Amino acid sequence: MEACLNAAVRKTPGTAAKAAKPARPTGEPALKVTKAAKATKAAKVAKAPAAGGVAAPKARTVTKADGKPVLKTARAPKATLPEAAAIPLPVETVEGAVRPAYWDEACADLMKRDRILRKMIPTYGPAHLISRGDPFITLARSIVGQQISVKAAQSVWDRLAAACPKLTPAQLLRAGVDKLAACGLSRRKAEYIVDLAEHFKAGRVHVDKWAEMDDEAVIAELTQIRGIGRWTAEMFLMFNLMRPNVLPLDDIGLINAISANYFSGEPVTRSEAREVAANWEPWRTVATWYMWRSLDPLPVTY
């Protein structure tokens, strides 16, 4: 498999260290806090609302077998966040980005026929797949993103863009394998991008005809380029040509999302994934995009 999309991991800030108690001046008598005073203070704290406006659990007095009263606090109920309460993702603002003309129609159709997508699609608000429209950059980004996380791929791409700001085939050819590898690419990926640049500069790919060719014909031509397999070609169909019915079964993120959403996390075969996706036609690209979002809310672009 050429790529996987990793789920985003959210970090919670650490707990601040407690401040040291000030030393009591010599000769000052220590103040004794009675059990009754402690109980009164605990009761006041229990009545005060907790952070976020949620009331703290109520304190109650329990009498032990020896007759001594003990103040106990009930456990707070576990907070739940309904799916509808999730914060919608904003629409990405990428320079030169294009929105698929079919997106709204596809979402409405998928929500009618698929119970999982009926709940999932509204969760992500107005976010949608976007295309930058540059075939060479889309393919180069896809190569960079092979078998690494979205975050890692973006980091490498940013260094590549800093080294070769124009990001044209000619500039990347002048840079050469060594300079590209210094940006964080493996040497093999650097060689793949150089080979891609050579194909574009020499006119060995029919860029102007791809829009008229069917999906399989485009895949057949692209996979002749070193380093481009079926998954990379399918990413190109989705993110550049914006074909509406692409199902990238080699994508581990899609398989994992189908497993999580339709099979309660049980392992899923390609055949089972294909059977689920049959209900998504002719909008399998759109359904796949939302499956990715269910694992990683950060939209990926190529």
Automatic annotation (TrEMBL):
Organism the protein comes from: Cupriavidus cauae
Top-level class of the enzyme under EC nomenclature: hydrolase
Top-level taxonomy: Bacteria, Pseudomonadati, Pseudomonadota, Betaproteobacteria, Burkholderiales
Residue span, HhH-GPD domain: 144-296
InterPro entries in the cross-refs: Alkylbase_DNA_Glycosylase/TA, DNA_glycosylase, HhH-GPD_domain
Pfam families from the UniProt entry: HhH-GPD
Official protein name in the record: DNA-3-methyladenine glycosylase II
Catalytic activity annotation: Hydrolysis of alkylated DNA, releasing 3-methyladenine, 3-methylguanine, 7-methylguanine and 7-methyladenine
GO cellular-component term (any): protein-DNA complex
CDD domains in alphabetical order: ENDO3c
A GO molecular function held by the record: DNA-3-methyladenine glycosylase activity
Family: Belongs to the alkylbase DNA glycosidase AlkA family.
